[in-house]
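Technical appendix A lists one of the benchmark inputs used to test multi-chain prediction within the project. The record comprises two sequence entries:
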Amino acid sequence: MMFAGLFVKNKQHIKYYAIAGTIIAFIANWYDGQLAGGSSTVLYGMLEVSSVSVLFNGIAIGCTFLYFLLCGSAFEKVGEDVADYFALVFFILAGITLTASFSNLLMLFLAIEIISIPQYILAGADKKNLKSNEASLKYFLTGSFTTGILLMGIALLYGATGSFNIREMGLGTGDLSPLALCGILLTGFALAFKVSAAPFHFWTPDVYDGSPTVFTAFMATIVKAASFLAFIRLFHVSFSEGSITGHWQLILAIITAATLLIGNFTAVFQQSVKRMLAYSSIAQAGFMLFAVVAFNETATQGIMLYAIAYSVATIGIFSILLKLKDYTFEGYNGLARTQPLLALANTVFLLSLAGIPLTAGFFAKYFLLSAAVQQGNLLWLVIVGVLCAAISAYYYFRVIMAMYFKTGDAETNAPITGGYKGLLVTAVAVVIILGVFPGLILQFL
Amino acid sequence: MLTVLLILIPLVTGLITFGLKGPAAKVFSLLSSLASLVVAVIAWQQFSAAPESLQFTQSWIPQLGSQFNVGLDGMGTMLCLLTAISFPLIFITVYNRDYEKPGAFYGLMLLSQAGLIGVFTAYDALLFYVFWELALIPVYFLCSMWGGERAVPVTFKFFVYTFAGSLLMLVGIIYIYFQTPDHSFSWTSFTSLQLSTQDQSWLFWLFFVAFAIKMPVFPFHTWQPDTYEQSPTPVTMVLSGIMVKMGLFGVIRWLLPVLPQGAFMWQEVAIVLSIIGIIYASCIAIMQSDLKRLIAYSSIAHIGLMSAAIFANNEQSMQGVQVQMFNHGINIIGLWIVVEIIQNRLNIKNMSEMGGIASYAPKLAIVLVVVSLANIALPLTNGFIGEFLMFSGLFQYNAWFAAIAGLAIILAAVYMLRMLQKVIFGEANALTATTTDLKSGEMLAIGAVIVVIFFLGVYPKPLLELVHSTTAIVNATAWVK
């Protein structure tokens, strides 16, 4: 994709090359899964191809494919360098595939950076917009700061264990050295920054709000899910043996509760749907943190379902947002009358985010709650989680109320083509089918 | 397969109805509801002949051990019958009303019917939860889109209340699921599980709050009067006639057999809350001037009595509750039919603006009197036997509780007779003098209600026999374990 801009003159065609690229990547990933069978390591043991990584990569590539289809045309409106934007998204995708299969801390560092640097650029892609510039700078500064913390954490872990390999660090045996403990805390905090968990979430609303909407859709979904997978891999493989878990589980549980409460309560007071989605992404991050805190098989199943349910629904919502002129709640007033299909699709996506049964979001939440309940000592966190889910219904339903029960003429600023409608219906079908038969995804694990 | 058909008919026809326009939507949904009624009656017959043929199990999510397991016991059959009778009555009552976007309106109504039947037939806890929510979502849209001026915020409050309660129940379901040896959601696994007393103690509240919100029991009732008032009447009929029974049903099907010790520990608290609700709601009902709110508060009082009787821990009260679930459904739908007719004619809800209707619409006045008397459980009406059994059961448990709850009978007579006096007797005004009497469609709907009222008032045996098996199961599994 890097060179696509050199050869393709018509900017509108670049999207099709990108779509073809995701299809090739998808096939390659599937082939990789077939080749690896159960599990295998490559690159001197630095990467591990397993059913989890293959499935997650499949979900990430599939969601990127859907993202290109639904939001691809909006790339042209951001600026001149359309081919570069697509290329940057592919770079991020490359980083995502590494997060799903790293087995070495250096590879984790590389993966996080490969994901982050293109995002700093994409956040500032709308060069003439001051908010976009601010978002980019803010993201870059906080991101660089986090990188430093992550690197420090990795260095301390190496110092304590003498290994970068997450399976060979042997943290669970013997007494835990203060060095290792600091390393765990620092890597934990750095990853909490990346997934915008409270109290490290302050960059999120401004960056998501300031970035061109089309890129926010990508940052808030697939990228976030990937960061969670990195989180899970590191904590579940290296930090979950012996008595070590006790050191970080309570801290992470408190971070989870804080993320849920702050994300949900702040989202309630937002006036713009885009900003509400930014805060809701913090709230959803709180739910996804359940998967990290509860380290069991159900958690892995849950994060897979969450990745697909949350990504498809949020990409769908953002793609509809991109078509609207006004991003405030009032901008949605009467959408059900002017664009019934858009309103219906948006409703299904919002119901999925709220976790209503018969949508994929329900089973995503169900598995993560199950994982936490199974853990036994986290029931208080589960109760906080479900009460927050009830609060989340408030802001998601505000959009539904605006679309269906308020009078107005929600205006669109882009043509709503038949093809786009067809894609939306497909995305809705995915959400509902996975809401009835979540086993369709889980069978690959 | 009959049980699956009961769910599938409204589900599929509901989805089809979304695509229909104009009168086709109401005709189609009426036909669909009649088809459901026929299947429900056949299922009822089948229940007495070969009950095991009504069970249906199909693998659903093997990774979770959840099955699509539906079936009918006596109580389930009775509630499915109530649902199947109610929907045609509702559709006939509003047949002459023209709703905006009829396809969506009737489609959502049928989807809520599918959800309700699903709740009453599910024998898998996860499936039960899914149907529980499926019944809620269409009602949310129905109330918000076709309700009164304040419908949107009011319905939203109702939704958030119920959703929060449901989520707490979900946590309880997940917890119990992990305790089952075979990791299954099936009713059999849940009920055969021996949970520790400590677990049952807190799990009780997770379930009870969800059911108490739905019933509603004091202090979880605050959503109810506003929602009943603001909802369009057909939806209020669904809510008060059938949906509140979901809470009572949940207690009998899931709470008592799964958490018997929890229920035993907290039964007194539950009864006291229910009795507070009875007295409190009856007193407020007396002060109401809005007809819809009066009926809403009277419903809180009636449901409160049923909730108290469930926890009274004996066979008579349990049988009384189940019989009353059916009879209350029929009576309150009858009341709402009359309210809908009055509202359709006069477009007012305030009782101080009414009066003298009896002179201009005598048939309407007679049916309102009959339904009101059934609602206060006069002997020879269907309400009597249920209330008698419930009070008798409550008396066996604690005479004081029965005495205080018994005040509800007097209070109910006060507010219902006061309502009758204000609405149909007295001086007519310019508006009420224009009231026309019942039309043939309305006569058909309310006539059917009155036939049921008198038939079950004189001969309640079929109903008692139908629910007898469930009472036996609950008493065997719930209190003895």
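Chain B touches chain A at residues 61-63, 129-130, 133-134, 137, 141, 144-145, 151-152, 156, 159-160, 163-164, 167-168, 170-171, 174-175, 177-178 (CB under 8 Å). Residues 119 and 132 of chain B are 6 Å apart (CA to CA). Comparable benchmark entries are summarised in Table A2.
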